[in-house]
Every structure is written in structure tokens, then in C-alpha cells.
Amino acid sequence: MRLNRETFITGFALFSMFFGAGNLLLPPMLGYNAGSDWWLVAIGFMITAVGIPLLGIVAHARLQGTMFDFAKKVSPTFSTIYCILVYIISVAIPSPRTAAATYETVIAPNFEMIGPLESSVVFFGIVFLLALNRTKILSLLGMYLTPLIVIILLLVIGIGLYSAETLVAPVATVTLFDGLIEGYQTFDAIGSVVIGGVIIISLQLRGHTAFEVKRTLIFRAGLLAGIGLLVMYLGMIAIGGYFRSTTMITTTLSADLQRAQLLNTISLAALGTIGSVFLSCLIGLACFTTAVGIVTGTADYFKGIFNDAHTAYVAVVSMACILGVVIGQLDFGTIIHIGLPIIFMIYPITIVLIFLNVLPDRYASRLVFRVVVFTTIVCSLPDCIQFVIQEGTAIANWNVYIRTLLPLGNQHFGWVLPAVLSYVLGIVYELYRGMSKK
């Protein structure tokens, strides 16, 4: 019975740590632009925003270590660099983004006298206090905050779809790849390797030390969180598609404000004037729980590097919160734009590491890890360069040419087929080498 209770608490906590600013604002606008083709972009979004993050949790259940274990087969040095980069990226982009989204969609419309600085200070002040109460995180997120998020979302989605009208044609031609790219923007694949470590340490603090018990518990909790994310995303993408027939968003607004306006319009239509209150609570809770997961996961990792020193944990929590306050002064759209080149480099590496760690060891040797990761890095460079080199320059022109040579390169997935091919070649080589030794 206790295992069942722990499964729900852990699963709800996982859901709340995944479900942040991008998870709320991205799906409705994706469905809105897709119109009657909302199901097509939904498939792509589910792959990168649900399927891959869920595999990341499964990999954690199998490894039960830290993020360092995800890349150590490539080399200890590479793994250390990868971990530090991911944690720096996490506290520099998705974590401050939660504060920016909270200010723009909750504070600014309702409390004009409060500026982004005051909002961010209060936001990360609360994050700081909860991160210091490490043993209470699973209970607070899983037992109290997540049920509120789920109830509000289900009300908005259920009532909104019940009152929606007929679907209309999409704003522009949409493809499966549009959904895949938007799923990238949630940062959930990276989040899974960060948050998975938080769950493992939290379970140990709660007295779960047996490997098999933790593996079963993490796997079931991950499945529960994945189902929750699937239902919520499908609902929000669908309701965005249906609401295109009832309202039009002002095209002069920036993309991030369009997302917020659409979500606010949907909540008002579904729940009336009280919808704004519900929406404010929803966004605030979702952003807060994600920030807690990121800051705690980062502090846990660096605490391990410094021999489990509590001082190191407090120092990292403090620095992460201060960085969140500083970067949180930027608007939501600017933070997304800054993160694009980083996403297109670190995301593919994270995805292949997740897939390789899910596989049994005999199908993912050190050689296979090295070949696949190296291939992925090389083939991801053109996508990264596209966002940092000015168009029209010689380097930019060469970069465009290289992207056209890679299969799916123009869709920002030029790394996928080379990574698969390198994996197959690595396995064939390993089999051949094994047979030659006999």
C-alpha cells in the first residue's frame, strides 16, 4: 500500500516538475496555428515533449546514479563537461524563464505597481526556501501542488472543448516537424536527466534504498507522469485548434504575448471571469514547481562533486536563484531566442544519450556510445551555427549548403539518420570483432 501511495506522490511530483512555463504556453498556440491539423503537430509534440522525457526517467530508473552516469561511457571528461553545461543551461534558461512567464502572465496584468525585479526576487526567494527543505519536496509537490494544477487544467480543457465550435483550416501549412521542434522548446528531455536525479535522491531521503524497489517505483511514477502530460498536451493542443474558430489573436503582438493572450482567452471562455484567477494560479504553480526541480537538481549534482558538503548545496542553490533573478528580467520571448542555438546542440546529444542508456549494455558498448555521440555532435553543428552566424556571410552560405546535404537537415533534424546509421555500424563492428575473437 505504501508503494502505491509513494508511486502517486512521486508521479505527481514528476509531473509538476516537468510542467512549467513552456508546457503551458506552447501547446495552445501550436494547436491554434494548426487548426484542423492539430492532431498532426500533436504527434510530433508528444514525441519530443512526452516520449523522450519518459525514456529519460526510464534510463534513470535503470542507472540510479547521477547525470554523470548518462555520458560516462563516452569518457569521464566528456561526461563532466556535459553535466556542467546542462546544469548551467538549466539554471540560465528554463529556470529564469519560469520567473519571466510568471511576471508577464500573472503579475503584470494584475499588479501594475510590481516590476519584474520585485516579482523575480519573491519568486526565487520562495524557490530558495523550499530547496533548502530538501526532504519535503516530493510531499509538497506530489500531494498538494500537482493536484491543484491538474484540477485547474482539466476544468479549462473539459469545459473549453465542450463549448468549442467546428475546426477551421490551419493558419499556414503545418507538419509533424513543427510539433517536434515545439516539443524541443519545453526543455523536457534535458529536464528528465536533471529531474530524474532529484527523484532518486528524494526517494533515498524518504527511506527507499533497495535498487529494485526504486526502479519499480521510478518506472511506475514516470509512466503516471507521462500519461498526465499526454492527456494535458493533447487537450491543450486540441482546444487551441478549436478556439481558432471562435477568436482571432492580434497578429501585431509578439509570439510570447500571443501565447499568453490565447491561453487567457481560452480560460475566460471556459471558466468565465474567474478564469483569469484560475489561470494565474495555474501558471504560478506550474512555473514554481519546475524552478524548484531545476534548482534542486543542479544543487544535488554539485553537492556530490564536493563530497556531499551541505555548504556546497546551499551555495549552488543561492547562485542559481540569484542567476534566475538576474536573467528573469528579460522577457519570455528573449529567453527562448537566446536558448535556440543551445537547444539545437545540447538537445540531440541528450536524446541519443537517453536512448543509449535505455538499451541493455550488450547493445550499447563504450565504442557505440562514442561513435553515436561524436556523429550527433558533428551533424548538430549546422543547426547551432544557423542561429549564431549572420545570414549572407560566407560561413552562413556554406552552413546552408551542408544542411541541404544532410537528410532532414532543413527540418533541423539532420543529426537523426547519421546517428542511427552510426549506431548500426557500431553494432555491426562490435559483432564482427566478437566473432573474430572466437
Strand content: under 5%
Q: Please trace the helix and strand order, writing H or E for each element.
A: HHHHHHHHHHHHHHHHHH
Low-confidence stretches: 248-254
Shape: globular
User: Terminal Cα separation, in Å?
Assistant: 51 Å
What would you say this structure looks like, in words?
The chain is mainly α. 79% of the residues lie in helices and 0% in strands. The protein has 18 helices and no strands. The N and C termini lie far apart (51 Å).
List its salient traits:
mainly alpha; 438 residues; single chain
How would you summarize what this structure contains?
The protein is mainly alpha-helical. It has helices at 2-18, 21-34, 38-63, 68-71, 76-92, 94-110, 116-132, 137-163, 176-185, 188-205, 211-243, 255-271, 275-305, 310-327, 332-358, 366-386, 394-405, 416-437.
List the helices and strands and how they pair.
Layout lengths: L1 H17 L2 H14 L3 H26 L4 H4 L4 H17 L1 H17 L5 H17 L4 H27 L12 H10 L2 H18 L5 H33 L11 H17 L3 H31 L4 H18 L4 H27 L7 H21 L7 H12 L10 H22 L1
Helix pairs in contact: 1-8, 1-10, 1-11, 1-13, 2-3, 2-9, 2-11, 2-12, 3-9, 3-10, 3-11, 3-15, 5-6, 5-13, 6-7, 6-13, 6-14, 7-13, 7-14, 8-11, 8-12, 8-13, 10-13, 12-13, 13-14, 15-16, 16-17, 16-18
